[in-house]
Amino acid sequence: MIEALDLWFSYGDRDVLKGVNFRAKKGEVTVLMGRNGAGKTTLLLHLNGLLKPKKGKLIVEGKKIRYTKSDLKWLRRKVAFVFQNPDDQIIAPGVYQEVAFGPVNLRMGNVEEIVKNSLKAVGLEGYENRLCSTLSGGEKKRLAIASALAMNPDYIVMDEPTAGVDAEGFNSTVEIVEKLKEEKGVIVSTHDLDFARAVGDKFVFMDGGKIVYEGDSIDYELARKCGIRTFFSGELVVVSHDGTIPDGDFDFIAAMGVKAKKRVEKEGINLDIASATLERSILRALEGHSVLLVCSAEMLHVVKREVSKFPVNVKFLASLESYEEKAIEVKDGSKNSLL
Ligand SMILES: Nc1ncnc2c1ncn2[C@@H]1O[C@H](COP(=O)(O)OP(=O)(O)OP(=O)(O)O)[C@@H](O)[C@H]1O
Ligand SMILES: [Mg+2]
């Protein structure tokens, strides 16, 4: 396991990491997300000792890193780093030399075989004799991964591996990461929600130099608050049955709960969605429609909980807090009867 404990770091006098606690395990893909400047790259650079924290500890496989020459050598063997921009990483003129650089330095045997296998793992077999400068951007990104793999690390850290890659490159990066996690721990930072969803086992959000979320799934509502780009989608406007129903050009109108249904009936509003209301409202919004959901007040918290699981834009016109007391009365497990 890689553990960063109460990590602080500043560039000059500006704190960029402010007490970060971060964990990543073998056999898992840990996805780091957050707005530009949140501190993701800075945190990742700590994980293999490219940056030294001002305060806090880095513990890898139970060993506390002391930042001595020998510790850093050990750490960089354990944890490989793949830069966002491959030009920051690629140092050799030729592909073979580039991938062989690490294994030769580490005096690993059978370098030719290692280079061949590493290139194969990223779909660049037969590229040995190419000049690095003649590779496309996507190919360079895969070459950078091959160079990291060649050192056979236990963990591989990748900063935005899918930035600037096409659909094929995306699929191949997903495949590479999926394969890697069978034996290693993978830590990626990304703004690519498709990628995060495709590979992520653990999701960590950073904001303002702090970890603000850690979980097994993406909390989309929080994601948006943290400036994480979610899909372009329509909008779900939720209003309480006793609130003011907005005038708007909605594609679909739905009502959830008896009180809400009574309210729309009273207003003479025709419903477009009459059953499986919440699911279908979310689905329509995901498809890009604008949806108005009139909801019985005591169900608002259920709506809030469920919509946070989907990448859908939601606007609550009623204050949820004012319904919190009522919400407490609705116990878990009553969800189905409510919906
Ligand atoms: N070498 C540096 N010198 C001074 N400030 C830096 C340096 N590197 C990063 N910063 C600043 O530290 C903050 C965090 O940067 P970092 O690169 O870690 O963010 P990030 O979350 O990776 O952002 P992005 O999503 O844009 O890659 C930013 O405000 C950035 O300007
Ligand atoms: Mg970054």
Question: Could you explain the architecture of this structure?
Answer:
It is a single chain. With 339 residues, the protein is of the alpha/beta class. The protein has 2 domains: 2-225, Rossmann fold (3-Layer(aba) Sandwich); 235-338. 35% of the residues lie in helices and 24% in strands. It has helices at 40-47, 69-78, 95-105, 111-121, 137-150, 167-180, 193-199, 220-225, 258-267, 277-286, 300-307, 324-329, 335-338, and strands at 2-11, 14-24, 29-33, 55-60, 63-64, 79-82, 155-159, 185-189, 202-207, 210-215, 235-240, 252-256, 290-295, 313-316. Strands 6-7-8-3-9-10 form a 6-stranded mixed sheet, with helices on both faces. Strands 2-1-4-5 form a 4-stranded antiparallel sheet, covered by helices on one side. Strand 7 (155-159), helix 6 (167-180) and strand 8 (185-189) form a beta-alpha-beta unit. Helix 4 packs across helix 5. The chain is elongated. The two termini are 41 Å apart. Residues 325-339 have low confidence and may be disordered. Magnesium ion binds next to helix 1. The site of adenosine-5'-triphosphate has 10 residues, from helix 1. InterPro entries: AAA+_ATPase, ABC_transporter-like_ATP-bd, ABC_transporter-like_CS, ABC_transpr_CbiO/EcfA_su, Co_trans_ATP-bd, ECF_ABC_transporter_ATP-bd, P-loop_NTPase. One of its GO terms (biological process) is cobalt ion transport.
What is the gist of this entry?
This protein has helices at residues 40-47, 69-78, 95-105, 111-121, 137-150, 167-180, 193-199, 220-225, 258-267, 277-286, 300-307, 324-329, 335-338, and strands at 2-11, 14-24, 29-33, 55-60, 63-64, 79-82, 155-159, 185-189, 202-207, 210-215, 235-240, 252-256, 290-295, 313-316. It has 339 residues and is of the alpha/beta class. The protein has 2 domains: 2-225, 3-Layer(aba) Sandwich (Rossmann fold), CATH 3.40.50; 235-338.
